[in-house]
Backbone:
């Protein structure tokens, strides 16, 4: 089983800011952390748009370059998920609502599950990944989710 750890090297001391500035700062801090991460990870906002993705996350999830997916909807623009049948059909909307990044976003709780991602390049095997997601809070409300991935 994969083991994922997150550690922050410095303490982010809160200062008096407007709610918009707080959301911007919170996502700015997480975005910078995800962008620099060696581990495959992804940060989405409450609208399910990609805020940040690590280079290794792009490679594992067959997304191309990180700059190409920033701002795109997670499922409608960049990530194509397949079911676990031999046919490997695309997931239905009911099934995609249960993937860890969206489940953490909608439930406000940790979520974990397996995903099969459609490979972009011909001849490449569709990767199966273990995804662990946590909600990202701003002013006590869920404003996005942070997901770490590990190839299975």
Residues:
């Amino acid at each position: 089983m994969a083991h994922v750890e997150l550690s922050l090297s410095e303490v982010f001391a809160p200062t008096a800011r407007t709610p918009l500035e707080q959301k911007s700062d919170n996502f700015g801090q997480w975005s910078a952390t995800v962008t620099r991460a060696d581990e495959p990870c992804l940060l989405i906002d409450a609208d399910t748009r990609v805020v940040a993705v690590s280079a290794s996350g792009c490679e594992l999830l067959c997304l191309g370059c990180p700059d190409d997916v920033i701002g795109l909807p997670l499922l409608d623009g960049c990530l194509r998920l397949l079911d676990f049948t031999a046919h490997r059909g695309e997931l239905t909307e009911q099934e995609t609502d249960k993937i860890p990044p969206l489940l953490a976003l909608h439930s406000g709780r940790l979520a974990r599950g397996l995903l099969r991602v459609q490979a972009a390049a011909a001849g490449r095997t569709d990767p199966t990944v273990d995804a662990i997601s946590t909600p990202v809070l701003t002013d006590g409300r869920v404003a996005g989710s942070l997901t770490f991935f590990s190839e299975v």
About this structure: The mean pLDDT is 85. The chain has six helices and six strands. The two ends are 8 Å apart (CA to CA).
